[in-house]
Amino acid sequence: MQTMSPNIPLPTLRSVTRSCRAFPRVLPAAFALIACAAAFTLMSPPRAEAASINAAFKGQAMWIWQMPKTEGGNIAKIVARAKKADISAVYVKSADGSGAWQQFTKTLVKSLRSAGLHVCGWQFVYGSNPTGEAKAAAAAKTAGAQCLIIDAESSYEGRYKSARTYMKSLRKRVGSKFALGFTSFPYVDYHPALPYSVFLGSGGAEVNMPQVYWRDIGTSVTTAMKHTWRENRIYGRPIHPIGQTYQSPPVSDILRFRRLAIAYRAPGYSWWEWTPTSSKIWTALGRDLPTGSPADDPGWPVLTKGSKGDSVYRAQQLLASANSQRLTENGVFGSATTRAVKEFQAAHNLTVDGTIGAATWRLLGKVTVAAAAQRSLAVAAQSVPRSATLPARRNELQARR
User: Fold this and answer.
1) CATH number of the domain that 151 lies in?
2) Least CB-packed of 61, 157, 163, 222 within 10 Å?
3) Contact 263, 292 (CB under 8 A)
4) Cis check: omega of the bond before 329, within 30 degrees of 0
5) What is the pLDDT of residues 113-154, one digit of tens each?
6) pTM
7) Parallel/antiparallel/unpaired status of strands 268-272 and 59-64
8) Does residue 84 sit in the same domain as residue 148?
9) 247 with 365, same domain?
10) CA torsion, points 248, 250, 251, 253, in degrees to nearest 10?
């Protein structure tokens, strides 16, 4: 287990949390449906849904890992720099696993909010003690946070039962209306066993916050954002992308990320992390951007017989809500799923090919959203999809290490 050193470059959310356990707690009708689908906007989410989310997820935000290393813990300096860079919210680490961090206090939250900043806590979760993690998470609300962001990554792959237990326990503690965000790997298709569908499902987080760290992934801003949007839009939650200010990205990348977030109609976007952000990048964050055109449609995942993973599990959940026939939700696209897809397609005048592509995804999301919203966390609460045993294709955020 690594210990932190000022000579080690500040890592990402992912590598940070690897050392967190050793890190001490820091101080201070068919035609109508078809018409509806045709009118469905290319980007996720619909404007009405985005408009309803907590203000802390809108605009531009910055993540804070260690308060003592963030402007020396000086609240006045934090506020001044944030406002100059058009940062409207800060996401401060409030817990790691089942341990609440002492830096996230009522005094801190009150000071930041009094100065006009929105404040959320964020917690890295492991899944080994979901009830204890939920208790630690809820402490952020007690301290006055406007929202909590759940960061679940490699250690949560395959842990569907833990995810359900965590979400159920957390909602019991903070209430059904308290604002939650969820952040994880941006490429859902690389992580077939990660329970995105639980964290972003009924009773879960209202906002999806994928970590689009393009330089870490080893690709361009444009490619990373397109891949991320294509794979994440199926969960039907507003997408609030997280960009990177570490690894010295050029200012042109920062501006490109901001333009694309707006073009994809994200309600807001944020940056990891405060401490390594250079003066040039802080200036770029505050720069006015010209009005641009909507982004091109990034496409949708294509699922067919033989596909496996949480994307299939998500599709099966939607199909089970829409179709009359019983469908086992197991994350494996087999004959039963093919029949269910064809039934849905036939019922809604779509091409009956048994493949879930753009047209079927769009209509599934529109037709079944109301029905799916009624499905509680208790549905299949004891089941673990067969796809939960699948290994990750790749950890895209460690490609260049």
Assistant:
1) 3.20.20.80
2) 222
3) yes
4) no
5) 999 999 999 999 999 999 999 999 999 999 999 999 999 999
6) 0.88
7) parallel
8) yes
9) no
10) -110
